[in-house]
Specification:
Largest sheet: 4 strands, mixed
Structural class: alpha+beta
Oligomer: single chain
Number of domains: 1
Strand order of the largest sheet: 2-3-4-6
Radius of gyration: 15 Å
Length: 143
């Protein structure tokens, strides 16, 4: 379905939306459209549960004309806090890794400029990047 159809269904059902092109919704990103100040919220999903979110997602031109939008129900992880804090881009990447949890780094990734990029965050590549960042963070903490 097209994005306007998916958003209308989302408002009626309370479900989130995603593009089939983005891959597996068990680990990736889904969008929750709203009419509040958060606009459209990007929700990071790992193992089928929400672990992080970021506000004010903007669709690309490809997203607006795509006909592969689908609905998805995502379980909120009640045992872990959901990070909604925004942090600013820093030139000192090691400091960011040391000071913020990996999920914060995921939030940062959605806020950095990326002209022409597809949403690779939903891919296995981004999942591997997150795992590597977590390893780096653990190594830094042990020092």
């Amino acid at each position: 379905m097209y994005i306007h159809e998916a958003v209308k269904l989302s408002e009626e059902t309370g479900k989130s939306i995603y593009r089939k092109e983005w891959g597996n919704t068990d680990k990736g990103c889904v969008i929750t459209p709203t009419n509040d100040m958060d606009c459209c919220t990007v929700r990071l999903i790992l193992d089928g549960k929400e672990v992080s979110r970021c506000r004010c997602w903007n669709p690309t031109a490809d997203d607006l004309i795509a006909d592969d939008w689908e609905m998805v129900t995502v379980e909120k992880n009640e045992n872990e806090s959901i990070n909604t804090r925004s942090i600013k881009k820093s030139s000192n990447f090691e400091y960011i890794i040391a000071e913020y949890p990996v999920i914060d780094l995921v939030t940062v990734s959605f806020q950095l400029p990326r002209p022409g990029w597809k949403i690779f965050e939903a891919s296995d590549l981004w999942y591997q990047v997150c795992l590597r960042l977590e390893e780096i963070q653990k190594e830094h903490i042990q020092k």
